[in-house]
Amino acid sequence: MLDIQGLRAKVGDNEILRGIDLHVGAGEVHAIMGPNGSGKSTLAHVLSGRENYQVTAGGVTYQGQNLLALSPELRAREGIFLAFQYPVEIPGVSTTYFLKAALNAVRKHRGLEELDAMEFLALIKEKMKLVEMDQVLLNRPLNEGFSGGEKKRNEILQMAVLDPKLALLDETDSGLDIDALRVVANGVNALRGKDRAMIVITHYQRLLDYIVPDFIHVLYDGRIVKSGTKELAMELERKGYDWLKSEGAAVR
Amino acid sequence: MTTSEHTARYIGASKEWLSAAKSSAPSWLNDLRQDGSASFAALGFPTPHQEEWKYTNVEPVVSRQFGLANGEAQSLGISDILSSAFVEADAPRLVFVNGVYAPAFSSVPNLPGGVRLTNLSELLRSDDAVLAARIGRYANYRRNAFVALNTAFMGDGAVVIIPPGCRVSKPIYLVYASGAKNRLIMSHPRTLIILGAGSEVHIVESYSGVDGESYFCNAVTELIGEPDSAAHHYRLQREGAAGFHTGTLAARLDRGCHLTAHAVTLSGALVRNDVHVSLDGEGAECVLNGLYLGDDKQHVDNFTEIEHSKPRATSRELYKGILDGASRGVFNGKIVVHKDAQKSDARQTNRNLLLSADAQVNTKPQLEIHADDVKCSHGSTIGQLDPDALFYLRSRGLGPDEARSLLSFAFASDIVGRMKVAAIRERLDDYLVEKFRDH
Asked: Which structural domain, as residue segments, surrounds residue A202?
């Protein structure tokens, strides 16, 4: 589904990704861990098309297409979804209004009929159960005044409604207490499926107790320095990241 | 011609009108009109040399040969007026065409006992005592030339009087429609709103006009709140693309009074709105919300002044502007806290969104504080659409144009969301969605 080869990217003069290789197959859940500043979020943003990053080398193939040639909205319509670490507050636009516009843009691209207000409401009510979200939030301005937990639930709700093929979860656990974390993780798990791949980015092993990945990669200094299965997360939890930093230096 | 020559022309016109109207008017009215005319003569039309008119040159307005309407100008269609004026079909309404009451278009269904909703010209004929005691006392014609001109030409408009303790739940619409084919028409509509103690009312003043025809609407509204009353005032402007509008809302609030005044300017070649609120009783409060949109070469100027005259009064002000094309926006927000107005609490915010490189805005807060125990804050911003928000929307599948139009809509709709009348919110949101579609 997704093939990343020798990907290098920078912001201004600062090179952040220094050669990433990663293969993600349909139905797989990959976790990307690493210390702060290792490039985890940059990778997520480059994949979703954020314009502040400049790709200097390497490439990304998504479902046989050159992903990097697509605009952010085309990537979204083709099935890529980024759950933001810091969802943006947009006063004046309700979640319902925004999500209906987004869903219909995606559906139009996929050759599906646009949903009318009634059909959309039925769909969103069903999906809200996944994240145990309060319905009053739907009519409030998007993310404005939402708690950290409400914002993250809203991200997963959007993911459920937009039905992506590849979901990128950027530090979805940050700022969540354990109850909210469980709800969000349950929502994510319910969306796992053989046609949907996920890349879960996190600093802490805690999230991976709830969303158990098939593969784990450790990013350090812009490179994947170690890959393994879920046992790697336990090892990281015990030993921290420091022991990998020397390996990272050795790779370089 | 110079500004003073234009002034002289208008002085002449007002004298002519005065003598023509004299015989049918009570003497207090003739005196008031005379005062207005004399004040206008003393003030003259403002020029950009005056601080309060620094960014707004009224030359294009005052240089044209506008004349008062006569019978033939009532040619506007009712459906055109009501649809462009955001009016609810079954709501009580007074409709004025080019400043003249149009009974055929108006509808005054049963109102709660004692509520007076009538056109001004009728009351002027009957020499009404309340009117004589109140009108002209609040909008300062000695300071503002356009108020003076309106006072000199005072002839028709609306009078709304709510008796003490009466709460009117349905909004009352005052509709002022302007413009006529092939004639340069001016009008000077006057509105007087009096809220008795403990009463409440929603008043929607809607100003609209014929697109493409040049006209000049110079409106003045006086609003008086007796103790503990609550007024919700809406000034909605959808003037024609070649229409000029100068307008003043002058409000005086007594003890425990509340006023929320929304000012929405959607269109017009040149629009200047003055708001003057006097918080003249302990614990009075006012909320001023404004939204102004500019496009092409439009010019929108909002001048607001809030006077805290008594202790413990509160004012909240939020004005937002979206300027596109080569339009220009002006916001001037003055807050005066008088010496005895301790524990005053004033907050003012002005936010502007510039959608094009040629659009511009001038924003100026002005605080004059003569008391020592007060809370006052102000802030203004001028910016473009937030790139983080744009990316967020695009990452969900919205195209860049759609994302921009949604964010512009959202910026404006924030003000609409603060309005209590659902029918107005819906109509304005529909208008804004259309306006910003694929911008």
From this structure: 2-251
